[in-house]
Design goal:
mainly alpha; BCAA_transport_permease; single chain; transmembrane; two-stranded antiparallel sheet; 11 helices; transmembrane helix; ABC_transp_permease; ABC transporter involved in vitamin B12 uptake, BtuC; amino-acid transport
């Protein structure tokens, strides 16, 4: 029973990684950019909740919606200000990567300047009695995390496969030049992708604040890195892969904490990534792509 309990706890933690990993996968799928500033969008979303819920004392639903909206807009602004000109002029990928790291450092320092470097405490947001399932006790945060992540992935999959903007995203991902010739506004599509990815990161931030009620300006660093590992583990560019990678990462962390040592959690997580990539370089659900000549 303890083993199963640890698996479920791991799925709860992994749900947060999975939501953030979706943003990494979407952006990479469209423009082949590893947006390392994406982890700090989680921090931005967490502070948006803090400002609306704690400092302004407004209702929880408004804090959640405000955080999602603010992060979505922030994602679009970051794409337009930091990446747009580089993408338009087909800049080397290393330039985009350095810019992403610069945006990450800028956001961390900006929020340290605005709110200070001391951690801020968050109130418990979603609370109800734990659910007893056989001999396993499911906490409210675990149930909410898993449920929300599944709903978000299903909604995103539906958007990409059925809606017009989703088809434009797939066309841009496949061949941006051909998509332009077919009348698709690729600039708008890329900006929309950044916005949706950042909004998902805000949902992850809300779940994170509910699970670990403390925030600080550098919180997005390691969390974003683990979400990136989850995206690569599942196959970056794949929506189901990002979810699978997030869940596996969460379970690996939970098992390591329970049966090995909490000090080795990060080592085990990155060790698993190395082993998987040695066996399957494209990730668990990734596909091999051949360069056209």
């Amino acid at each position: 029973m303890e083993f199963l309990s640890q698996v479920i706890n791991g799925l709860g933690i992994g749900s947060i990684y999975a939501l953030v990993a979706l943003g990494y996968s979407m952006v990479y799928g469209i423009v082949q950019l590893i947006n390392f500033a994406h982890g700090d969008i989680i921090m931005v979303g967490a502070y948006a909740v803090f400002v609306i819920l704690v400092m302004m004392n407004l209702p929880l639903w408004l804090a959640v919606l405000g955080s999602i909206l603010f992060c979505g807009i922030a994602g679009v602004v970051i794409e337009r200000v930091a990446y747009h000109r580089l993408l338009v002029h087909d800049a080397p990928r290393i330039s985009l990567l350095i810019t992403a790291i610069g945006v990450s450092i800028f956001l961390q320092n900006l929020y340290q300047l605005l709110f200070g470097s001391d951690p801020k405490s968050m109130p418990k947001m979603f609370t109800f009695a734990p659910l007893q399932l056989g001999g396993i006790q499911l906490t409210s945060s675990t149930i909410i995390n898993i449920s929300v992540s599944v709903v978000m992935m299903a909604g995103l999959q539906l958007l990409v496969s059925k809606m017009k903007i989703g088809k434009a995203m797939r066309a841009t991902s496949e061949d941006a030049g051909a998509a332009k010739l077919m009348g698709i506004n690729t600039n708008t599509t890329i900006a929309f992708t950044f916005g949706i990815g950042s909004a998902l990161a805000a949902v992850g931030a809300v779940l994170y604040c509910n699970t670990y009620p403390q925030i600080k300006p550098v919180m997005g660093g390691l969390l974003g890195l683990k979400a990136f590992v989850a995206a690569v583990l599942g196959g970056i560019g794949s929506i189901p892969g990002a979810m699978l990678g997030g869940y596996l990462l969460g379970v690996a962390e939970s098992m390591t904490n329970a049966y090995i040592s909490s000090n080795l959690t990060d080592a085990v997580v990155f060790g698993i990534l190395i082993i998987v990539l040695l066996v399957k370089p494209t990730g668990l659900l990734g596909k091999n792509t051949r360069e056209k000549v």
